[in-house]
Design the sequence.
């Protein structure tokens, strides 16, 4: 993810400078394999990437002789931020459904250090949004997360630009892995072969549990509720059912009947809070959701001013999620 972001930053470097007055240098990179790497004068990112692909013993030796050296005292995120003299943290750790860690700690550390925090990780939004939002305000910094839902589509910033709008509910398709699996099953493959197909395309992880059992979609639903409806919600309050128990025959029969299966996220504001669900539903062909296939996504918002406001993202490419982080970067430091 962050490699793609770095490529996008370099591709847009002239535009960032000439149009937005933004220049940058990358002073820190952290990975499980190489640890906390920092150089406040700027890292040679290409060199670090080449080192990371080398066998571990060779990599450690190469780093010690390069500008991308391990910072002498960087043994955790806080000392690393100090060693890198960071103004911005791009946080892209893996989703932890249970706690949002280590993303929560990374973002908290960045804000306390005095850096803006930008994340593509949904977990911290669900588990610590209000704490991190309030900390960012107190420190005069930005906490942004546009890439957490529908890649880089500006959902959160859209509502930020529509003051006093009241969101009453939403529904949509927010998980591309299950969408691809269902599409492949409709085409004749078994569930297992459809999953392998999604994995071979790089859409599904080796362990696709979060997608198949609807955790990813539930976390996205919770993030939208927490931020846009300003109602904190626990994941166990969302009725969740994945696609694991759908067999290929049922999926093909549903498509033939004109009511294909989709993994649908729903949320509705009530007098006492919000009701929400994520589960497979049969969708009529007259519903726009029935046409969402492959890696595409769709969301339909119900507001007090706009009865229906829909956004469709068609088959996003590799740069889509990275673009969300780039856009947040411009929002954080641009004029």
Sequence:
């Amino acid at each position: 993810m962050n490699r793609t972001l770095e490529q996008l930053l370099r591709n847009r470097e002239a535009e960032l400078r000439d149009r937005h007055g933004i220049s940058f240098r990358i002073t820190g990179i952290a990975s499980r394999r190489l640890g906390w790497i920092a150089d406040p004068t700027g890292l040679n990112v290409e060199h670090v990437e080449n080192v990371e692909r080398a066998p571990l013993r060779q990599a450690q030796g190469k780093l010690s002789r390069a500008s991308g050296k391990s910072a002498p005292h960087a043994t955790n995120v806080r000392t690393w931020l100090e060693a890198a003299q960071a103004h911005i943290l791009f946080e892209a750790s893996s989703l932890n459904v249970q706690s949002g860690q280590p993303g929560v700690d990374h973002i908290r550390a960045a804000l306390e250090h005095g850096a803006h925090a930008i994340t593509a990780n949904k977990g911290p939004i669900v588990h610590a949004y209000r704490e991190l939002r309030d900390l960012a305000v107190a420190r005069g910094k930005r906490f942004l997360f546009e890439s957490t839902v529908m890649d880089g589509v500006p959902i959160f910033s859209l509502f930020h630009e529509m003051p006093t709008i009241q969101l009453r509910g939403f529904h949509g398709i927010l998980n591309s892995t299950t969408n691809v699996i269902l599409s492949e099953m409709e085409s004749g493959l078994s569930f297992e072969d459809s999953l392998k197909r999604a994995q071979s395309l790089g859409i599904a992880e080796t362990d696709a549990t979060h997608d198949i059992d609807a955790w990813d979609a539930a976390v996205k639903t919770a993030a939208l509720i927490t931020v846009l409806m300003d109602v904190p919600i626990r994941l166990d309050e969302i009725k969740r059912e994945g696609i694991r128990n759908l067999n290929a025959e049922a999926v093909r029969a549903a498509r033939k009947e004109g009511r294909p299966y989709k993994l649908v996220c729903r949320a509705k504001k009530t007098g006492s809070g919000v009701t929400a669900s994520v589960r497979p539903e049969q969708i009529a062909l007259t519903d726009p959701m029935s046409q969402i296939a492959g890696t595409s996504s769709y969301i339909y918002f119900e507001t007090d001013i706009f009865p229906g406001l829909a956004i469709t993202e068609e088959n996003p490419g590799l740069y889509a999620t990275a673009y969300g982080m780039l856009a947040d970067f411009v929002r954080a430091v641009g004029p």
Remarks:
- Residues 123-139 form the longest helix (17 residues).
- The first strand starts at residue 28 and ends at 31.
- The CA atoms of residues 100 and 123 lie 4 Å apart.
- Confidence is low (pLDDT under 50) at residues 56-61, 64-68.
